[in-house]
Write a structure and sequence with these properties.
The chain has helices at about 30, 40-50, 65-80, 100-105, 110-120, 155-165, 180-185; strands at about 20-25, 55-60, 85-90, 110, 135-140, 145-150, 165, 170-175. With about 210 residues, the protein is an alpha/beta fold. The longest helix is centred in the middle third of the chain and has 15 residues, at about 65-80.
C-alpha cells in the first residue's frame, strides 16, 4: 500500500517572516462525515482577519483517537515544519476527549500559562470553563521548535480565546492568548509575526519590537 502523504512534505517558506501554521480539528463525527467540520474554517477566517504578516496553513481533520492526534501533531511539526499548531476539540472531561493527553505525549516542554489564560477567558462566559483541560506546549526537535495550543471546539469560543475580551471603549479587558504568541514564536526561533491591532495586539518587550525601516 502506498502511504505517501503529499501534505506531509516540508513546507516552503516563501518569505522569511511567513508563519507556517498547522490546524487540527478533532471530532469523531466530522471525521466520519456525519456533519461538516466547523473548526478548520473558523480558524482560517480568524487568521485572515488577525494577521498582517504572511502565513500558510496545513490542515488535518482527525477523530478523537489519541494515536491519530499524536501522529498529526508530529507530522505537522517534524515533517511539514510548522511553527505553530492549533488544535480544536477534544479537551473536555468525556472519555473520548484525549487531545491534551496527545499533545503532552508529543511535547518536550509544557507552557501552562496558555491553558490558564484560556480558562480565565472562558470563565467570563460560562462556569463550566473549569471543565476544560486545554494545554499549551512546545515540541522541539533538532533545529526546529513549534508551539502547540489546544483551543475550544466552538467557533465563537475559538475567537474569544484568541482575541480576549474588550471593554466598551475597545480597550482590552482580558487579554487573548494570541497576544503572547508572536513573542513566544520569536523566542523559539520562528518568524516575526505581525497582527492587526483592531483584532488582537501582539505584545513584545520594547527590545524585541522590530523597527520599521526609515
Amino acid at each position: 500500500m502506498n502511504n505517501w502523504n503529499p501534505e506531509a512534505m516540508k513546507a516552503e517558506r516563501r518569505h522569511p517572516d511567513e508563519l507556517i501554521l498547522g490546524l487540527v480539528s478533532i471530532s469523531d463525527r466530522a471525521a466520519q462525515g456525519v456533519y461538516a467540520d466547523q473548526g478548520l474554517p473558523s480558524l482560517k477566517v480568524w487568521f485572515e482577519r488577525a494577521l498582517a504578516s504572511p502565513w500558510q496553513a496545513h490542515e488535518r481533520l482527525v477523530p478523537d483517537e489519541r494515536p491519530q492526534i499524536e501522529r498529526a501533531l508530529i507530522e505537522l511539526v517534524d515533517d511539514v515544519g510548522c511553527d505553530l499548531v492549533l488544535t480544536t476539540g477534544g479537551t473536555g472531561p468525556a472519555r473520548r476527549d484525549v487531545t491534551p493527553e496527545a499533545t503532552l505525549a508529543v511535547a518536550t516542554r509544557e507552557m501552562p500559562g496558555f491553558g490558564e489564560q484560556m480558562r480565565r477567558i472562558s470563565l467570563e462566559f460560562v462556569p463550566t470553563a473549569i471543565l476544560s483541560r486545554q494545554v499549551g506546549a512546545l515540541r522541539e526537535i533538532a533545529g526546529h521548535s513549534a508551539l502547540i495550543l489546544n483551543l475550544p471546539g466552538q467557533p465563537k469560543a475559538i475567537a474569544e480565546t484568541l482575541e480576549g475580551l474588550r471593554a466598551a471603549d475597545g480597550t482590552a479587558r482580558v487579554p487573548g492568548i494570541f497576544a503572547a504568541v508572536p513573542y513566544c514564536i520569536d523566542l523559539i526561533g520562528g518568524p516575526y509575526i505581525e497582527t492587526r491591532e483592531d483584532v488582537v495586539k501582539a505584545f513584545r518587550p520594547k527590545s524585541a519590537v522590530r523597527r520599521s525601516p526609515a
